[in-house]
Design a protein that fits this description.
The complex is a heterodimer of chains A (260) and B (504). In chain A, α5 crosses α6 and α8 runs parallel beside α11. With 260 residues, chain A is an alpha/beta fold. The model of chain A has no long low-confidence stretch (mean pLDDT 89). Chain A has a single domain, classed as 3-Layer(aba) Sandwich (Rossmann fold). Chain A contains eleven helices and nine strands. Chain B has 504 residues and is mainly alpha-helical. Chain B contains 21 helices and three strands. In chain B, β2 and β3 form a beta hairpin. The radius of gyration of chain B is 33 Å and the shape is elongated. The chains are: A alpha/beta (260), B mainly alpha (504). The interface between A and B is medium-sized, with 32 and 26 residues.
């Protein structure tokens, strides 16, 4: 891979293998994510979707491989990457308000030892208004609904003002209004020329939401523009053996095609 | 909660086994010497005179001033650090750490004693305590990261093994001739009264540093506790912060060992923070309250211990913290039990009132409604119809009606008839309208079958805020005339007959 070539890619993965307790979770991953796309990462449970995202941000050690964000290691490109973790990954019974959580996305700008100031909170509110819940800015986070909590996480990622966003199942267990809000947010980010890589589990909406997909089942089954890659055969390869899922996938195909 | 019960049991144990004449009773004796009370350790329980109480509480007595002030300062420091420890869900780690301090104390005593000193230099002993305390935490982290043993098991192992080593070493030292190891045991149960000015200066200096670090690193610690994965992503050195937090916990533990003792210090760390959580959902307020509760426990506990005979300071301080905890658990404004009970009861009353008023209104409507435009007359209805209109018992209905009468919603009800007052009629109309709006919204926007809508509407309508009602109105404006009360979208199963016969 040419270095100049990978510098234009938000994410370039070469030969990545990650193992938990010496059992590989994902292996031999080679992947280049093009800039300015909405990328869906699709695969069955345990396929290593979250692991892939976490490995990209050095959150878990990798057994081998190289990952570059715009041509450089993640450590040097933190400010370019925004992250939306899974909602269940934190305890929402924490004594902070929605805007406090969003302000966490600004901590790099606030600086060590310094308190969060009014201008940061104003910024946090602005981000909350992007996801449609500015009126809940001072609400304690445990009093928000699941969808609202998800939006708080999105607003926090927006506050990072990144070029490349990685989102782990933002559509999981959210209400219809939140789903619409997230979709319009993704389109807005795309229009600004930003890249989003989204772990997604609902096959029915893949073709509608994403213009690029990565089909993952411990290895990359295929990756590319949705039109070319999101095919019945590829889905069978990805979900193979799991019959109910295969049916679901076939249904999703028909559904997706009818949307086109 | 489990933690709390455990600590409480420990406190009682310490109260029972601690030496009856040691510790605070000395202070008491000193106090009593200058006053009218008989000198010497008291065997019978007597309340101290009010002047003594005032002197101690207001810090006018030199001996107790030092003790009370240092426990207060310690309370502030442990309040801050304990908040983060609690939010990090590492309370037990603090316990493991404090128990792991014992071998270090004895080790440093042996080293210092064999070097020729008395082996009782406080700074030296505390250094030893920090050393093995930190090693203990390190071992816990090592066990849980390299093996599949879970955190709590690792902590249990480290806690008991290190404490066991400490006890074994201490017993060995005591059996060695020519060494006076008396006083080492004070670190286990605490001996606040033995504090001298030098100790006080050391303690308050370190406590100020601890509190300052907690405040300076508040947002970093908060992110570590709330979402360390995200923290790692934005480049926060989470491991370093974790270690720093543990060092702060170790510092508080070591400082508190002299006053509270290493067994009970965990209560001093965790209880004020848990107490503060009952009052607030704001981290800053929680830190301040936690520090305040810590200081209050120290102040009350140390004072009480100085005033009453045979009351070891450490245990009394922890008991004071427990009293504050229990009071807060009951009366806390954010998540206290009383608040929960009251709001639950209020909702139940509100739901009952709304059901009753709506039922009466629906019955009036069934009987007297002639056209959609004309307003309904406020007429009385048959009690028997009301009873069969919903599934409620005669007892609960008459309870609701009696409450309705007290609230001036029901004008009169006897065995036969029920009638509403003017305000009751207005309220009933409003409630029925909200219910109908919500029902229609569910049918038109949520695809719920009309036959199911009544029950679905029931569960939400009681919590409809005025803003939500306005939203409903604007959402439904195109479909219905929201100015008047819309007709029910579903049939009622009970006809308006005095006998209350059912009709489908």
């Amino acid at each position: 891979m040419e270095p100049s070539h990978s510098a234009s890619h938000p994410l370039a993965i070469h030969d990545l293998t990650v193992a938990y307790h010496r059992k590989p979770v994902i292996w031999d991953i080679d992947l280049d994510i093009p800039e300015g796309k909405l990328v869906g990462v699709i695969g069955p449970n345990g396929a290593g979707k979250s692991t892939l995202i976490k490995a990209c941000m050095d959150l878990i050690p990798r057994a081998s491989g190289e990952i570059s964000i715009y041509g450089k290691p993640y450590k040097k490109q933190r400010s370019l990457v925004g992250y939306v973790p899974q909602r269940e990954s934190v305890d929402w019974d924490f004594p902070v308000s929605a805007q406090d959580v969003v302000a966490m996305g600004l901590y790099r700008k606030v600086g060590w030892f310094k308190p969060v100031r009014k201008k940061h909170l104003d910024k946090a509110r602005e981000m909350l208004s992007h996801v449609g819940i500015e009126h809940l800015a001072e609400r304690q986070i445990s009093q928000l609904s699941g969808g609202q909590q998800q939006r708080v996480f999105l607003a926090r990622a927006l506050a990072q003002e990144a070029k490349f966003y990685m989102m782990d199942e933002p559509f999981a267990a959210v209400d219809a209004a939140t789903e619409r809000a997230i979709v319009s947010l993704l389109r807005e980010l795309k229009n600004q020329g930003k890249t989003c890589m989204v772990v997604h589990h609902d096959l029915a909406t893949v073709a509608k939401y994403f213009d690029w997909v990565v089909l993952l089942n411990m290895r990359i089954v295929d990756a590319g523009p949705t039109d070319l890659v999101f095919t019945e055969e590829n889905l069978r390869k990805t979900y193979g053996g799991k019959l109910s899922l295969l049916d679901e996938a076939a249904q999703a195909m028909r559904h997706g095609k009818s949307h086109k | 909660m489990k933690m709390f019960i455990r600590v409480l049991a420990l406190v009682l144990l310490v109260l029972i086994i601690s030496h009856p004449t040691a510790d605070a009773s000395q202070v008491h004796a000193e106090l009593a010497h200058g006053s009218q009370l008989a000198g010497g350790p008291l065997r019978s329980f007597e309340l101290p005179p009010w002047e003594d109480v005032q002197d101690v509480l207001m810090l006018r007595n030199y001996n107790t001033k030092l003790v009370v002030l240092s426990t207060m300062i310690l309370g502030v420091a442990s309040g801050f650090v304990g908040s983060f420890l609690l939010l990090r869900k590492r309370s037990l780690m603090g316990d493991a750490l404090s128990h792991a301090c014992l071998p270090g104390i004895v080790l440093l005593f042996i080293i210092m004693a064999s070097a020729g000193g008395s082996g009782k230099s406080l700074v030296g002993l505390l250094l030893g305590a920090s050393l093995t305390g930190i090693i203990g935490v390190g071992v816990v982290m090592l066990i849980s990261s390299t093996s599949r043993v879970k955190d709590d098991a690792a902590m249990g192992i480290v806690l008991s093994v290190f404490f066991g080593i400490g006890i074994a070493m201490m017993t060995m030292v005591q059996k060695t001739p020519g060494q006076s190891s008396a006083g080492l045991i004070d670190f286990i149960y605490g001996k606040a009264a033995s504090m001298v000015l030098q100790d006080f200066v050391l303690l308050s200096g370190v406590a100020v540093v601890i509190a300052a670090l907690c405040l300076l690193l508040m947002k970093e610690f908060a992110l570590l506790c709330f979402d360390q994965t995200f923290g790692k992503c934005i480049g926060l050195p989470v491991h370093l912060l974790d270690v720093l937090l543990m060092i702060l916990v170790a510092a508080v533990t070591v400082l508190g060992m002299q006053a509270v003792g290493l067994i009970l210090i965990i209560a001093y760390l965790v209880t004020p923070a848990a107490t503060a959580r009952f009052w607030t959902d704001n981290l800053r307020v929680m830190l301040l309250l936690s520090a305040l509760f810590g200081a209050m426990s120290g102040w009350l506990g140390a004072s009480l211990s100085a005033l009453l005979p045979r009351m070891p300071a450490g245990a009394v301080i922890v008991l004071m913290a427990a009293v504050l905890f229990i009071l807060s658990m009951l009366f806390g404004t954010s998540r206290g039990i009383l608040k929960r009970v009251i709001s639950h009861r209020q909702l139940k009353i509100k739901v009952g009132r709304q059901h009753m008023l709506r039922a009466v209104y629906e019955l009036i409507e069934l009987r007297y409604k002639t056209s959609a435009k004309l307003s309904l007359p406020n007429k009385s209805i048959h009690y028997a119809n009301l009873l069969s209109h919903r599934t409620w018992s005669a007892a609960s209905l008459s309870h609701l009606l009696r409450r309705g009468k007290r609230e001036d919603h029901i004008e009169k009800f006897d065995g036969m008839h029920v009638s509403l007052t003017e305000s009751g009629f207005g309220e009933a109309a409003r409630i029925t309208r909200n219910h109908r709006l919500w029902e229609i919204f569910l049918i038109t926007h949520a695809d719920i079958a009309p036959s199911h809508v009544d029950r679905d509407a029931d569960s939400v309508e009681h919590v409809l805020s005025p803003e939500m009602v306005r939203e409903l109105e604007s959402a439904l404006e195109a479909k219905i005339d929201t100015q008047v009360i819309p007709p029910s979208p579903h049939e009622f199963f009970v006809a308006d007959k005095p006998e209350g016969e059912k009709e489908l």
